[in-house]
From TrEMBL:
It comes from Algoriphagus winogradskyi. Residues 18-290 form the Histone deacetylase domain. It comes from the Bacteria. Keywords: Hydrolase. The keyword Hydrolase applies. Belongs to the histone deacetylase family. This is Acetoin utilization deacetylase AcuC. Gene3D superfamilies: Histone deacetylase domain.
Length: 300
C-alpha cells in the first residue's frame, strides 16, 4: 500500500507578496483522491518528532532558539517565513512525516511525504523556506537505528541542496547528489558528493540525458540500500524561480527514471515534495501528482 504523510496546513498569515504557494499542500491530497490514485486509508497524519532526532542532525543551540522563538531578525529573514509557534510545530510534524514515510518505504518499497524536501536547512541555521532538514533527519534516523547502511539522496529540485550537502560532507554512509540550476539560488553552493550544475533554459531531452548519465556514475561508486528523493517541480519552464525549460512530460520522465532505478535496485525510496513556484497552482499540483501516479504504477 502506498502510504503518504499529510501534515497540517500552515494557516499563519504570510507577508504581502510572498511567493511560496502554500495552497499546493492542501490541493494535492484532494486531487489524488478525486482521481482515485489513492484512498483515504493511504494517508497518515504524523505527530511532531521527538527532540532527540532533531538534535541528531541540528545543533542544540539552534533548536533551542527555534522552538523558543528567539532567532534574531536576520536569522528569521534568512528562512523567508515570519517565525511563529504554528510554523515550528508544522516543521517538526513534517520531519516526522518523512521519518515515518521512510519506515513505510522499508515495508512497502516506497512512501511519500506531501511536504518536506527542506534541503536548505543547515545544522545551525535555516535558509530558503527551510527551518529544519527533514532529509538529513531521516537519513540519520535510518542509519542510527540500523535500518539502513548506505543512503542515497537524489535531490532534483532546481536549487542546490546546500544544507543537506553540508550536513553529510564527512559522512561516507550518505551520498548526496544534487542536480540543480547553475546560476540559481543559493549563489554560494556547498560541495555535495556529486553536484551537477545545469545551465538556464535546459530542456527535457538534455536534462534527462544528463540525469541518466549521473545516476550511472553514482552507482559505480556507491551502492544504496535506501533512497531519499527530493522531487521538486521548480524545474518547469513556467516556474517563476526555476529558469529551466522543462515540460510536465519531462518531469514525469525524470520521476519515472528515479523510481524505476529504486525498483531495479530493490532499494526502498522515500519521496518528499520540494519546490514548485509556477504562477499557475494547477500546474504545480499536476506536476506533483505525476510522481504519485508513477509510484502506484511502478510499485503496486
Amino acid at each position: 500500500m502506498l502510504k503518504i504523510a499529510f501534515s497540517p496546513i500552515y494557516k499563519h498569515p504570510l507577508p504581502e507578496g510572498h511567493r511560496f504557494p502554500m495552497e499546493k499542500y492542501e490541493l494535492l491530497p484532494g486531487q489524488l483522491l478525486h482521481e482515485g490514485v489513492v484512498k483515504e486509508e493511504n494517508f497518515f497524519k504524523p505527530k511532531p518528532i521527538e527532540d532527540k532526532w532533531i538534535l541528531n542532525t541540528h545543533t542544540e543551540e539552534y533548536w533551542n532558539k527555534l522552538k523558543n522563538l528567539t532567532l534574531t531578525k536576520s536569522e528569521v529573514r534568512a528562512t523567508g517565513f515570519p517565525l511563529s509557534k504554528e510554523l515550528v510545530d508544522r516543521e517538526i510534524t513534517i520531519l516526522n512525516g518523512s521519518v515515518q514515510a521512510a519506515e513505510f518505504a522499508l515495508k512497502y518499497g516506497i512512501a511519500m511525504n506531501i511536504a518536506g524536501g527542506t534541503h536548505h536547512a543547515y545544522a545551525n541555521r535555516g535558509e530558503g523556506f527551510c527551518l529544519l532538514n527533514d532529509i538529513g533527519v531521516t537519513a540519520n534516523y535510518l542509519i542510527d537505528n540500523q535500518l539502513s547502511k548506505n543512503v542515497l539522496v537524489v535531490d532534483l529540485d532546481v536549487h542546490q541542496g546546500n544544507g543537506t550537502a553540508s550536513l553529510f560532507a564527512e559522512n561516507p554512509n550518505v551520498f548526496t547528489f544534487s542536480m540543480h540550476g547553475e546560476k540559481n539560488y543559493p549563489m554560494r553552493k556547498e560541495v555535495s558528493d556529486l553536484d551537477c550544475a545545469i545551465p538556464d533554459g535546459t530542456k527535457d531531452e538534455e536534462y534527462l540525458k544528463i540525469l541518466e548519465f549521473q545516476l550511472e556514475v553514482i552507482l559505480k561508486n556507491f551502492t544504496p540500500d535506501f533512497i531519499i528523493y527530493q522531487s521538486g517541480v521548480d524545474v518547469l519552464a513556467t516556474d517563476k524561480l526555476g529558469r529551466l525549460s522543462m515540460t510536465l512530460d519531462g518531469v514525469k520522465r525524470r520521476d519515472a527514471m528515479v523510481l524505476n532505478l529504486a525498483k531495479s535496485l530493490d532499494s526502498p525510496i522515500m519521496c518528499c515534495m520540494g519546490g514548485g513556484y509556477s504562477s499557475k497552482v494547477s500546474q504545480i499540483v499536476e506536476a506533483h501528482t505525476q510522481v504519485y501516479r508513477l509510484a502506484q504504477d511502478i510499485f503496486f
